[in-house]
Amino acid sequence: MMGLGIAASLAYGWYLAPNQKVNIQPDNLRIDYKSDVVLMVAEAYHADHNLASAITRISLLGNTQPVDTIQKAILFAEQQGYSDLDLQMMRELLAAVQELTPLITTPIP
Amino acid sequence: MNQSRGSLYLLTGFLLGLGIGLIYSLVIQPVRYTDIAPAMLDPAAKDRYRALIAIAYNADRDLVRARARLALLKDDDPYRSLAEQAQRWLAEGKPFEESRALGLLAISLAQAQATILAPPTSIINSPPKTQSATQASEINPIEITVTPKLTSQLTLTGSEYPNPSQELLSSPSPQVTPTAPLHFQLSKRDSVCDPTIGQNLIQVYTWDATGAELSGVEFIINWQGGENHFFTGLKPEKGKGYADFTMTPGILYTLRLASGGEPVMDLSSPSCTTASGEKYWGILVLEFSPP
Lengths: 109, 291
Prior knowledge:
The complex is a heterodimer of chains A (109) and B (291).
Chain A: H1 2-16, H2 31-48, H3 51-58, H4 66-80, H5 84-100, H6 102-105
Helix pairs in contact in A: 2-3, 2-4, 2-5, 4-5
Chain B: H1 2-28, H2 43-60, H3 63-72, H4 78-92, H5 96-117, H6 133-139, H7 141-158, H8 164-169, E1 185-192, E2 201-206, E3 218-223, E4 226-231, E5 242-246, E6 253-257, E7 264-267, E8 271-273, E9 279-281, E10 283-289
Helix pairs in contact in B: 2-3, 2-5, 3-7, 4-5
């Protein structure tokens, strides 16, 4: 009977409970969607050059360093063959964020 | 006696198992969501994602790409979701730029939809009836407009890794039929006393020359020390040409169209009285149509 109880509660915890309302955040998005989020931020930054807003928007993707997030997105975009214009905008955003946070990206000798 | 004790042991075992299983599946090893799609985000995160789509659209004006991105959220009615969020964010005091971007994208979607649904306006320029259907479809701008949008949406949602650059940019830019700047004038101004409304509203209605409600008309309202912008069409449940603004009693407002025209001055909450002599504030109804 103990085994039956364990099986029932595992079924609940792993299959039934997740179907109920849970807080799923954007840092759990798949890499392609994350890259598109970075691209959206880059498009906005390309138009308004508001770096503070861009960094705030990138933070939507979690607490990792914005530079890391953007670099991963660019890597994915290059592998997937995003257009030159999109890549250019993403690199423009990366350069601006790197400029703001040189200590994070510059290796310490 | 022994039989009842045996049942008790079984029940205890079951409950013990249940407890162990619950602790394991909910606390020690709970389900973790990874590699999810935007449609699975919680409502607040979806709002932020939707706002980002609108901001990106505001930057590049690529409606095909914006529609494809919105499709990832799997909203029942993207236009309504955008419009409602724009209103909600305005009311909640979220950044005006983001609320505005949401509103603009909602309006662009509505206008594109209206362009698709509208009867061909190119009747005058349409090819003679003797031309083949294929030739006609090459000339008819509406058919050219619709196809790439649908294609791009299907391609995006069907691929394992949606690549917005290749799949969306390779398709032609949206061909929203440009509309000539419209000129409006105030055609009706009414004070309405209705105690059931409960808000001191300026209700605005806009119509085009054919009498159809017109969304996306921007109004600017000024009062001493303040200014606000609002658009028609962001409360679709009240009509595409509808917009409203909540007044503060005792303050005078001036309303004008962002596209120009005569300002409507000295707007204030009308004072009303119920049958029992109780006072309350009414609403102003303003109607705008082409001269």
